[in-house]
Fold this protein.
Amino acid sequence: MKRMTAWLAAVCLIATCILPVRATETSGTDLFETAQESTDADSRKTEEQNPSEADADGQKAEEQKPEEKENPSEADADGQKPEEEENPSDAEADSITDTDASPDVSDPLVQQPITQNDDWNAKQASVSMMGGIEVTLMNALPIQQGSRIYLTVTLEGVDSKEVVLESNSEKHSVLFEDLQTGTYHLMISEKEDSCTGFGFLTYEQDIQVEGDVKTAEIYTGFIEVDGINYTVDSPHPGALLIGDVNRDGKIDELDKEAIMQAISKGTDGVWTGNPDSNPTDLNKDGQTDLVDLQYYANSKARINENADTKASLYSRLSPDSVQVNINPASTQVSGDVGELLKDNGSIVRLQNTNGTEISEAAPVEIGFNLTSS
């Protein structure tokens, strides 16, 4: 008991001495900070003691936040409205509208649309189709260099044309156009005023024209090539027969005798003379010899074997039997499109209406109608 009383007395004494000193050293600011620290400490203790209440308060705060965003239009109405975002679908529509806008017609690189017209190729070929006959001539004999063969090509009742063949194998063609349907008689003979000539028999052949162009290829002599047989049932060119020395329109024993007599008059089997005045000089080399006799023998042998000397005819479409149509919406033409079917050296230029390179997107359109209306 006495000890207890002594301890209390000591505590009171210490408190009496210390508390006044502590109160003197503490200012107003220190008292506020001390009180704030005491308040914070009490708050932490309260949170530790009641964690469930703190969590509940947090949830309430979280629940209140979405409510503030539920009506953004009201919030915007209270303050300044934010800048409206562009609708993506509207932007795409604007982009499409710009892309589909009409091209600038003044730009030469822009291809203008082509108006389709299905009637541009409706025109048919004329009912009154005209045909023709083409004759192609070529020298096939080894004749003297510089010599010329003058021929007259005649289509009876139509016209006559002159052809000059030389020692080379160049082809020459003559064309008789605008022929009505029918049969025409072709004749090829040496020109009458060509000195004595080579002694070719007159070539004759009937040709039927039916709105087409018939072609006959005829040589001075026979072509010795595999596959070419001078028979009626085998395709072959026509042949001019040489050896009519006395010009009686036949190749016979009289012509052979004339050649043999000329050779016998010469020296060593050769009779020399002016080829223009010597009908026995068939190749026009200035002398009559065994070469001329061989020319005669070849022709005579073909005659004896009944060789078919008439040309096999080939047919092609007449330009008048084909109607050429141009689509004016896509194609521009310089020249006569009818000349496209003729081998006459004419120039026809085609260009698309855009003036650009011809392509699938920018074509030129041509129609060929073979049917008569």
The two ends are 151 Å apart (CA to CA).
